[in-house]
Amino acid sequence: MINTIKKTHHSSTAGFTIIKKDKQTRARLGILTTPHGIIKTPSYVFVGTYGKFLHLKPSDIPKTKSQLVIANTFHLWDTVLQSNKSMRQLAEKNKKLDTFLTQKLGLNIPTMTDSGGFQVLSLAFGDKNKVGKFMTGDSKPDASYKRSKIRITQKGVHFNFKGEKSFLGPKLSMKLQSKIGADIIFAFDQITSPLDDYEYNRKAVELTDKWAKICLKTRDPKQMLFGIVQGGLFKDLRIKSAKSIGFMPFDGFGIGGSYTKKQISKMLKWVVPYLPEEKPRHLLGVGKVADVFEAIDNGIDTFDCVIPTREARHGRLYTKTGHMDIRRGAFSNDKKVIEKGCGCLTCSSKISRSKIRALIKNEDRELNAKGQRWCLMHNMWFFNNLLNEIRASLARGSYQSYKTKFLKKFNS
RNA sequence: GGGGGUGUGGUGGAGUGGUCAAUCACAACAGACUGUAAAUCUGUCGGCCGUGUGCCUUCGUAGGUUCGAAUCCUACCGCCCCCA
């Protein structure tokens, strides 16, 4: 089983170093060191939920310049517990791939896992509720809103998934995350929805605190464990949570929860001052272009988001002037590359817009997957390149002007 | 020359007397996607405006039957198949 995989982690190889702080914002340039390599921060973290990227080969990932990948404990749950012969054989063949997750990825790079806590939110609602992480400013709480599918106790969360009863809590999450073996793991927290009231959030903060302590106690010491700040939309709860979680001996901190649109920045301004300056900060699940700058401005070092990959699969491609829907008929005869001067594999291979369009709109699974791969290669590279340029501007001390210039050109 | 079949909105293709401006799919157009139950979802898709259980014009063409026709009848036109 997984025990046969030799672990080469050494906690001494993990850490975070701040190289430079921006003078005008809270932004900082840093290096996050893990047993599987270093991450230059600020950095985008790409979401490979099942320990892989749909339609990408392991060798594609380095070509996108991705530094860090986050997978999900909830989704890997079954497979990591299964005795897996092929996985063991793989481990013996390629001894460099020393964890379950790097084996899944087929690649020896720094990884994270989410605790599965987010699924408590996303799986908790009936399809009718349509409540996600974000709520538009004018959304109003719906009378039908209720958490009909979950029951939260002091030990964790009971819920139904695909008709089966499940339970996930801090202890089990730590156990699973240890088996998965990511370099950085997250505490099991209680995320709330934008529709939850003060009282519900207050309790969630308390429970998140309690679970945080359990996670610290039952963690695998070879991994870096990040605690998570909650508090919903409420300033005093956010601060309370940040103080409390920030005081605990975590290796870094995640900021979680859900928001109304355009509120991320405000929330970060409440929370970040209460987190230890010398430790890395991760913003969970946020990553549109504008949000990237907001996060970095407010002292965030890493952040993960499905936007680049999901939108790529849906045909939305990013350029410095905004994004395009490659499926549009207007591109059917467009022989140009997605973006002139782009260094991604797709653009440097001179794959035309019309070609990508034809592939991604093709019913044939294989051709469609090829089209999606070109889109993924482009978007992931785009975001990594953006972060690379941001880092360069931080190093030069011209972050603010880079940001202004970039956003002026970029139409979201 | 004889027999049979067929003709529907950008395309394919339903519908064979009323609830049909016409199922559905594709294309097109517009929008969404933020710790991935998401290789996905939503909307529009004859014209007009006052956006409505609104008006107008449509189912090869021209007539006819009927209270009422894309649907039945007749003729014509086009295409397909079979026999000569």
Unreliable runs: 1-11
**Neighbour order of strands in the largest sheet:** 4-5-6-11-12-13-15-16
The CATH superfamily label of the largest domain reads Queuine tRNA-ribosyltransferase-like
Approximate helicity band: 25-40%
- Reported by name, the CATH topology of the largest domain is TIM Barrel
Number of separate structural domains: 2
The rough form would be described as globular
Number of helices: 15
CATH architecture of the largest domain: Alpha-Beta Barrel
Structural class: alpha/beta
Q: How large is the share of residues in beta strands?
A: 15-25%
Gyration radius, in Å: 21 Å
Structural description of this entry:
With about 400 residues, this protein is of the alpha/beta class. The protein has two domains: about 300 residues, Queuine tRNA-ribosyltransferase-like (TIM Barrel); about 70 residues, no CATH class. Helix content is about 40%, strand content about 20%. The chain has 15 helices and 18 strands. The strands form five sheets. An eight-stranded parallel β-barrel has the order 4-5-6-11-12-13-15-16, surrounded by six helices. A hairpin with a 2-residue loop joins strand 9 and strand 10. Helix 13 crosses helix 14 and helix 14 packs antiparallel against helix 15. The protein is globular, with a radius of gyration of 21 Å. The N terminus is likely disordered. The protein binds one RNA strand of 84 nucleotides through helix 5, strand 16, helix 11 and helix 14.
